[in-house]
Amino acid sequence: QLRFVESGGGLVQPGVSLRLSCAASGFTLDAYAIGWFRQAPGKERERVSCISSSGGTTNYADSVKGRFTISRDNAKNTVYLQMNSLKPEDTAVYYCASAPIIGRVCVPRGSWGQGTQVTVSS
After folding, report:
1. Residue 44: CB partners within 8 Å, gap ≥ 6?
2. Is residue 26 very low, low, confident or very high in pLDDT (cuts 50, 70, 90)?
3. How far apart are CA 52 and CA 92, in angstroms?
4. 68, 69, 119: which is closest to 93 by C-alpha?
5. ∠ CA 92-85-19 to the nearest 5 degrees?
6. Burial letters for 90-103: b for 16+ Cβ neighbours within 10 Å, e otherwise?
7. CA distance 73 to 86
8. Backbone region of residue 114 per phi and psi (left: phi > 0; alpha: psi in -120 to 50; beta: other values)
9. How high is the pLDDT of residue 73?
10. What is the rounded distance in angstroms from the CA atom of residue 58 to the CA atom of residue 5?
């Protein structure tokens, strides 16, 4: 089973940036499309962004478009989520997962990791 380890979260003020990392544990990432998802307290988990295995195709939720950038470094077996201009509504636990791209979205597969907490607050 694919395992992912998320890191890079923290407590930040509105307007600043964070970069999240998603590392593959025990397998090579380059064959998989990967998605970042988030879950805020009391809300359903939602898609944030997805990237194809080659990195040539990406998509974003409307709420983060223009502020977040997904990328991958297959040599480092890692997918990143650069988050700029953070807002309080970005507060959530962020997860990554294998997520085949279907149309304009991606669909998570397999189990979830522990995630990384992002809290945006003044």
Report:
1. none
2. confident
3. 24
4. 119
5. 60
6. bbbbbbbbbbbbee
7. 23
8. alpha
9. 95
10. 21
How far is it, in rounded angstroms, from Cα 83 to Cα 67? 6
Q: What is the pLDDT of residue 111?
A: 85
Average pLDDT over residues 110-121: 94
User: In the block, which residue shows the tokens 């395992």?
Assistant: 3
**Residue 65: which residues within 8 A CB-CB, separation 6 or more?**
none
The token pair that represents 78 in the structure block: 């890692």
104 DSSP 8-state letter: T
Amino acid at 82: Q
Q: Does the pLDDT of residue 89 top 90, yes or no?
A: yes
Structure tokens at 57: 């195709």
DSSP string, 57-97: -EEE-TTTTTTEEEEEEGGGTEEEEEE-S--GGG-EEEEEE
